[in-house]
Design a protein that fits this description.
Blueprint (H helix, E strand, L loop, with lengths): L7 H14 L1 H37 L5 E4 L14 E2 L1 H7 L4 E11 L6 E5 L1 H5 L7 E4 L7 E5 H7 L6 E4 L2 E9 L7 E4 H8 L4 E2 L1 E6 L3 H11 L4 E4 H7 L9 H29 L1 H9 L4 H37 L9 H27 L3 H5 L3
Parallel strand pairs: 4-9, 6-8
Antiparallel strand pairs: 1-11, 1-12, 2-10, 3-4, 3-11, 5-8, 6-9, 7-8
Helix pairs in contact: 1-11, 2-8, 2-9, 2-11, 2-12, 9-12, 11-12
Length: about 375
């Protein structure tokens, strides 16, 4: 008896032939799957990147301990000025404390960028100090220091005027980034602007060596305050450690899967309808139901893999463009999430293709051949 054409080689030929015969539809499917991958990677990447960058910048301040009011958020953008500045003097009197820097956090309403109101001498003494690329420290209430990333993003140079918290400031200096905020203004100016006389949002504290002992001493002064070591704070600044972000990330991932599922479902349903006679011929030639399903799911798998690779490439290209055009918006793409986005794209595509593939495999050859 003559061998049927349903061997592995013929399946591969049919598979590539069907993809080549419908280039527009295949291209749209690849694009839709690529969009899903970009959506997942960019949402997770921007979230992780901003959090990780913020943690590094806070760590770069040079403090060992952060003292905040009760129930204060780890995100300084939500901090309020409720702590008396005089409390810093009490902390400074502790024998285990070296430097205390009272700081007022403000969020610029237009850019949502956090601005620090600082006592320059104390803040600068916390770590290695500011490294100036140009200019000098501020010397009057209407001057500000910008870090190099903010200066690059806004095309600023020393002497330029910039609007922060609805007030104009002259850029007196540009410093290397990584010391907390993007902009720094005098503490008194910040207090006057916010109507927070003699109040601050946080105290950055540098101990003389024993961080835990110093932390315990500060808590004795006011047990209600939130006192964290810098190592504890940095460990919290991870998207995996923040329960508030998990529902958001899961929602974005689920949305990506739904997009892939719907696009592939519509594409495969239409394709199966168009190929009813073709499927009937294949079954008449000896193709089994399983082989029909394998052929259709195989086509979908290739579309999903190509779409995933295109999406990953677009994501890394976008990351590179943002790094040059908007360096203040870091995007962190981890290998784990690249693999996860690839797997999620395959999952969504497989779910979308299963129902049409199973339906096609159940066609009666006689009815399929008579289909117009």
């Amino acid at each position: 008896m003559e061998e049927t054409t349903s061997g592995p080689f013929s399946l591969v030929q049919m598979f590539w032939g069907n993809l080549a015969a419908r280039p527009l539809r295949c291209s749209l499917s690849v694009l839709a799957i690529a969009i899903q991958v970009v959506l997942v990677l960019m949402i997770v990447g921007m979230t992780s990147g901003v959090i990780a960058d913020w943690g590094k910048r806070v760590e770069g301040v040079g403090a060992d301990i952060l003292v905040q009011p009760p129930n204060a958020s780890i995100f300084f953008a939500f901090s309020s000025a409720v702590m008396q500045e005089s409390f810093g003097e009490e902390i400074e009197k502790l024998p285990s404390v070296d430097v205390v820097a009272p700081t007022l956090m403000m969020t610029d309403p237009k850019t949502l960028m956090v601005v620090y109101g600082i006592d320059y001498k104390r803040y600068n003494a916390l770590g290695k100090g500011f490294i100036f690329r140009a200019g000098r420290p501020f010397e009057n209430p209407e001057e500000t220091i910008a870090d190099d990333i903010a200066a690059q993003s806004r095309h600023l140079k020393v002497g330029d005027t910039v609007t922060l918290i609805n007030r104009s400031f002259r850029v007196s200096g540009i410093v290397v980034h990584g010391k907390g905020a993007r902009f720094y203004i005098p503490l008194k100016t910040a207090q006057d602007t916010m109507g927070a006389e003699k109040r601050v949002s946080i105290f950055f504290v540098r101990s003389k060596g024993d961080t835990e002992e110093t932390r315990a001493d500060i808590l004795k002064l006011n047990p209600q305050n939130r006192v964290r070591s810098m190592s504890e704070y940095v460990s919290l600044m991870s998207s995996s450690r923040l329960p508030e972000l998990k529902p958001f990330i899961r929602t974005m991932v689920a949305l990506g899967i739904v997009v892939s599922f719907l696009v592939v479902l519509m594409n495969m349903h239409t394709m199966v309808m168009e190929r009813t006679r073709e499927i009937g011929i294949l079954k008449a030639l000896g193709f089994t139901r399983l082989e029909v399903v394998e052929m259709l799911l195989g086509e979908t798998a290739v579309l999903a893999m190509v779409g995933s690779l295109v999406g990953i490439a677009i994501t890394f290209l976008t990351q590179a463009i943002l790094k040059e055009t908007n360096p203040s918006l870091p995007v962190l793409i981890s290998p784990g999430w690249v693999a996860a986005s690839f797997g999620l794209a395959l999952l969504g595509a497989a779910l979308g293709a299963t129902v049409p593939a199973v339906r096609a495999s159940s066609y009666d050859p006689v009815e399929a051949l008579a289909y117009e």
